[in-house]
Amino acid sequence: MATTIIEPFRIKSVEPLRFTSREQRIKILEEAFYNPFLVRADDVLIDLLTDSGTSAMSSRQWAAMMEGDESYAGSKSFYRFETAVQKITGMKNIIPTHQGRASEKILFTITGGKGKYFLSNTLFDTTRANIEFSGATGIDLLTEAGLQPSVPAPFKGNIDLEAMEKIILEKGAENIAMVIITITNNSGGGQPVSMENIRAASRICKKYGVAFFIDACRFAENCYFIKQREEGYAQKTILEIANELFSCADGCTMSAKKDAFANIGGFLALNDAALTQECRNLLVITEGFPTYGGLAGRDLEAIAVGLEEIVQEDYLKYRIRSMEYIGEKLEAAGIPFVKPVGGHAVYLDAKAFLPHVPVHQYPGLALSNELYIEGGIRSVEIGSLMFGKYAEDGALIPAPMELVRLAIPRRVYTQSHIDYVAEVIIEVFNKRASVKGYEIAYEAPLLRHFTARLRPVS
Ligand SMILES: *Cc1c(COP(=O)(O)O)cnc(C)c1O
């Protein structure tokens, strides 16, 4: 019997890639102030900057978009969207937003503020920024296993339950805005959280009367890992696992640009009626009327169909297998990366890859830029450029890990693209000793990595 796991789709429409020379790329990078976010997409060959909004939509999604009902209030597309989200989350109240961060902004404006704490396995960059912007404090409580890039474990996204309970007692339950668990843990290697961990976290929250939320961007990938790795789930469908997982929570925020195969969109799902009312009141002044919330009817349609497709096992099997495939190639070449490979991305361990570049010279950025020069591949630094802070004396307080994320857009690249990516990484690894670090020439006060300007350290 043939065992190769193939792409579970065929290609109906194609988009050409544009090739550049090494000399051109050196110049392009210089003109972009050595920040991959400032490079034009057209100058990138294989774009692994993010899996956000970059999915290929299915013919069913495109067909549904033509059915989009653009009525201002009560559009048919909203009810279709609402039903699709309820089917997965089981939550009562569904609020569409233009992106995940809009859901965060609304929810945290109401629940956050000065003196409040948000506890998480790891907060994503926009999530942390929205918490801090409200005046509250975000605390990451990843288990020890999650902080060891080279040591594999099945659920490296788990929250440290003991530390969580300790902080609830220390700060007082009334000061904990919520516990919000990110599935999969994007900033910590795309690692999954176990059902056991989610159940236990939920139980602790109930005990102290603390709200329990899920940052659900990659819920389907997380559920597939639970099915594969956690006892008692092998016979369950992804939808059943998702239902069980969301039943532990009071609500969730979601970016439909990830596990909903949409190019834009998000939602906030809640059980509490009073909180929903407050969120909708904010929604109308920032996003739009409650039945479209910053989206066109056609976007709501694309999300509704995307949510049906994302829980299909043929797809998830191919998705997770293609990630493992890259991992195997890197492993064979001795390249340091976060193990096991995550659900949506491979995370190179830049600290181990470039041991001669100190953290204050941003080894992650240095590696990311080298991948671009070598092979036109765009990736993103997830390290001290993204999460670093300054001490009072101006010294850098580095992030716990220096990673380079190669996020794989859903249903977009084929096996030969991935083979090429692995070859480029290996090529850079072979000449790693010559790679130099960077220093910051300009930075914004929040989310500095998006717009920072850098220069190579001479
Ligand atoms: C992408 C993402 C968000 C924010 O969603 P946007 O749609 O980009 O605003 C929040 N949390 C996690 C874990 C994400 O990956």
From TrEMBL:
InterPro entries: ArAA_b-elim_lyase/Thr_aldolase (IPR001597), Beta-eliminating_lyase (IPR011166), PyrdxlP-dep_Trfase (IPR015424), PyrdxlP-dep_Trfase_major (IPR015421), PyrdxlP-dep_Trfase_small (IPR015422)
Gene Ontology terms, MF aspect: tryptophanase activity
Keywords: Lyase, Pyridoxal phosphate
TM regions (residue ranges): none
The protein's required cofactors: pyridoxal 5'-phosphate
One Pfam match: Beta_elim_lyase
Residues found modified as N6-(pyridoxal phosphate)lysine: K258
Similarity remark: Belongs to the beta-eliminating lyase family.
PANTHER family attached to this UniProt entry: BETA-ELIMINATING LYASE-LIKE PROTEIN-RELATED, TRYPTOPHANASE
Name this protein carries in UniProt: L-cysteine desulfhydrase
Species annotation: Niabella soli DSM 19437
Gene encoding the protein: tnaA
